[in-house]
Amino acid sequence: MSSRLPTPSEPGPRRTEPAGIGVAPTGAVEVVSDRDHPGGFTVELDGTPQSYVDTVDPTNLVFEYVRRIGHVVDVIAPPAAPITALHLGGGGLTLPRYIAHTRPGSRQQVLESDRAVIDAVRDALPLTRGAQIRVRCADAFTATAVLPAGLRGRVELLVVDVFAGARTPARFTTTDFFTSLRPLLAPGGAVAINVADGGGLAFARALTATVADAIGPVTVIAEPATLKGRRFGNVVLVATSGAATLDVPALVRRAASDPFPATVHTGGDAVWFTGGARPRTAATADDSPAPPAGLLRR
Question: What CATH number is given to the structural domain containing 80?
Fold first, then answer.
């Protein structure tokens, strides 16, 4: 399950009647149509926006952190070249739809732990015919056990967007967890992680150190106000394994030209960002911080 945080100036979709509904362990799941944008839908969990899907234009990525990961998708391989992708956390399948549209022929696997989310999205927002996207109801923590053996060593992009409500559970933030994912990666493969944090970014800094320890060099992408601790928001971490194929200069250009521009820290700047934070272990990890009350509500 994914979670996002609204940018203060970012307009939200206007609600109409739900197009689909279910009940997950953490609350009601609704797929709500956007009256201002035909073909647009928001997937909500217990009233909190989790995903936005544009069924007419899959390249319309409304949530800012999703656009950041979309920029990674754009620069991880030559334009339109198919990739093998794995998504831990599915939500409305916004990014799998984006990859299928911009990189036809891509092979994708999605692990989503909430059956109600899968069913509500499948009923209200079915995937286009021919999209090679396999959705499995499974805990992301069991990824290496439940995925086909043939996927090992072939994943070029692994997206980690795992939330329970508005927080990432501690077990998905440790060196052990990220080390367990490494055998899935192709040489030069990348792991993109959605992180929610605020204030001094202690959680994001420690997670950056953790991912660097388990996977490899990390690139940090976020809006300047979030990086400066002025507001609670999303930070995207991109870790690369081996001789990475990520085109960082192109990523910097795309992030800077975004409607809500982002700063990209890589190399020595990313090391500086950790501020001496230590990698998180099972003994030291805790859940990500909760957002301020009411921040996620429309």
Answer: 3.40.50.150
